[in-house]
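Lecture 7 notes: from sequence to structure.
We start with the chain below.
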Amino acid sequence: MIVQNQGYQKSIYLSSSNTVVSGMYEWSNGVVEFFKLRAANDNLSEENTSLKNQVIKLQNQLETMNPEAKDSIRFRIPPEMEYQFISAKVISCTTNKIQNYITLNKGAIDGIKPDMGVVSDEGVVGIIKNVSRRFSVVIPLLNPKIEISCKFRRNNYSGGLLWSGEDYRYANLTDIARHVEFSHGDTLITSGLTSTFPEGVPVGTVEEFKIKESDAYYQIKVKLAVNFRTLSHVKVIDYLNYNEQKGLEKKSEEQ
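Predicted structure tokens for the same chain:
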């Protein structure tokens, strides 16, 4: 009755009500926008992957063009460069265990297979281990079960990258002899010596290194390019000639 009959009290009530209602609308819109933003990020990841596949195809064609060659072989792409990406979303990821794993929302129906390499926009993530119809599990760099072949960008000396099981931000580079020249901050990329990753994908940078008088190899600490604590979207590498290469290598080993 006071609010209805007194102008001042009525104005105060309406003002307070509008404040509460506007706050609720703002909160509601924020929730809606949050879920819209997640959907937008997923769509952007898909579009980015599609564009990346087109860029790779065009780059391969441009780099292999030879004006003096016949038309039949003018666009012949080297087999190790024939690959494409499959976008996927991270739905589970651990970083605080000795053997960490990542689960993706893509599986066999999307073309995912075991032993495929996984990368993000920052660099190397890991390798596909197990695949079901709709999901797949990745062994990331944060797992001592895998070792990634990488090399220094500036001099091509290669070694193996292995996680020590301590800090999710760092791993160790092995098999770098004492005569190799490098310095703090040097970039490491994939070597291309395996069928899992093409050459040139960022792996990390040299954080620190040391060597004793009696040692033949450096102890090198590498800061990983990927922040696994914030990883949300990845790209799975589909190397189109994987089966042919592996089949030939297996046949050679058996002979």
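Points to note: Confidence is low (pLDDT under 50) at residues 17-22. The radius of gyration is 26 Å.
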